[in-house]
Amino acid sequence: MNEAQRNECPLDRLVGLPPVLDACCGGRMMWFNKRHPLALYMDKRRESLRWDDAGMKALEVDPDVLADFTDMPFPDESFNLVVFDPPHMATLGKNSKMAQLYGRLVGDWSVDLSEGFKECLRVLKPLGVLIFKWNESDIPLADVLRCAPIEPLFGHQTKRHGKTHWLAFIKPNAEAHGRAVARTVQPLVGNSGGVE
After folding, report:
1. DSSP 8-state class, residue 35
2. Which of 74, 121, 166, 179 is the most buried (most CB within 10 A)?
3. 125 by DSSP, 3-state: which?
4. All structural domains of the chain with their residue ranges
């Protein structure tokens, strides 16, 4: 999709876009409200899955927008917050339950994730927040972070098995990026040496 096509997004012209994008929503398993009115859900697949084994028996993957996170159909700077929880396993078989639940990485995962980060930041407004979730069962987080064009602000590693990480990035404001922001702080101490 070229830049002119992205900036002519019919969704944006007709109804406006909500402030939050889930760039690869899958079955929306992390969401408390799976149909949150402030969020737009995107995925490259739409399917109903059923299993006969123990555990999760069914999953609906029903995004609002059918598109790939490496080529999003939205204009630049459309969202205040983007959630990026891409598939994180490259060694799964196509028909495995884990691949059906979470998707899988195929081909050169580093190219796909690099393009995904770029697209997430492109559609994010300046000073918007990107929430990134990664499980390092197959690929270490350090390797994945080499795909990100900016560094995360902070993150958290889950306690259970310690392999899932949540990270927060902020998109730099183009006007302030690359220059120091000077801020003068007035002292709170008066002539008497006490606090005013």
Report:
1. T
2. 74
3. strand
4. 3-170
